[in-house]
Specification:
375 residues, alpha+beta, five-stranded mixed sheet, elongated
Length: 375
Amino acid sequence: MSKGRFRVRAGVRDWLIAVGVAGTLLVTGLSGQHAATGLGLLGYVLLAVGGLALAAGRRAPVAVLAVTGLCAVGYQAAGFDVAAVAFLFAVYAAMRAGHRVVTVAVSVAVLAVLPLAALASGLHDTGEAFAQARGALQIAWLIAAGAAGEALRQAEQRADEAERTREETARRRADEERLHIARELHDSLTHQISVIKVQSEAAVHVARKRGEPVPEALLAIREAGREASRELRATLEALRDDDTTPPHGLDHVTELVERAGKSGLEATLTIEGRRHDVPTAVGRTAYRVVQESLTNIARHANAGTASVHIDYRPDTLAIRIDDDGKATPDSAPEPGIGLLGMRERVTALGGRLRAEPRSEGGFTVQAELPVERAS
């Protein structure tokens, strides 16, 4: 249900404030037990007018500022020792509307005239008149401070809401763009690569069936087709992974290791520490790190064995993948897109990734993912 249904319209809210302030001023004035003379009646009228004028503060803030200031001076001259609450509301509205110079000028004028108005009432000497004028504004300043604090709170709340909205919009657009790219890749490349792969496989099969030598170029085309097909499938899977479908996580790492074993790589999985639940983002990233590492080992490392080690620590999930491939400290491979993607995923969660050749030969990938920070 939309919150907007429970919001009071701006005009109604202005009238509620105006009536409330006018009522407060009249009650305060009546508590002074002023005589029902012409001057007394004028004072009550000025109290009511000063409060009700706030209803127009949004449309004519300068005019309301002048009216409430004159009313405050008027009922002070009539002998009403009432705080200039309506004037302070008008000051706030005028400043919020951007009329800074006019607001300061009118405020200074009212502050200067209030003591004279108290003297004009004939009920006070000079010292009492200044004290009354000062007291008329003290309560009002407190109210103004509260109103300013509430305005600042609402502004911060709106800013936070706007920031959340921007993030959600950006995330939604990124998801839409990613899915669009996945569709374009699928529509434009999948068919062509499949044709190349099928035709090259068929040509190799026919040549071997006839006992003819298979050209090296044809074998290279077949292998390139297979590799391109695998790469495209992996790319589409990553692009379509929108964090809304059930994600692959730590529970699926065993499948990755078993799949690597079926491809001819002797792969092992070791789990240490007390197993505990980790945030979805951490489990997803751990799966991707293991997946990309095993894929790179199978394609590029020329390795016979690979080991996956997962260590559950109290506040960290540590992952290590080692192989006995051809990499050496003197011939470090150039980092590819897969390794860069792993590093971006790990860094986004506040973790660390180290990928480098081992001194005894082969390659190692080590990742540490903070569990608490990611949650």
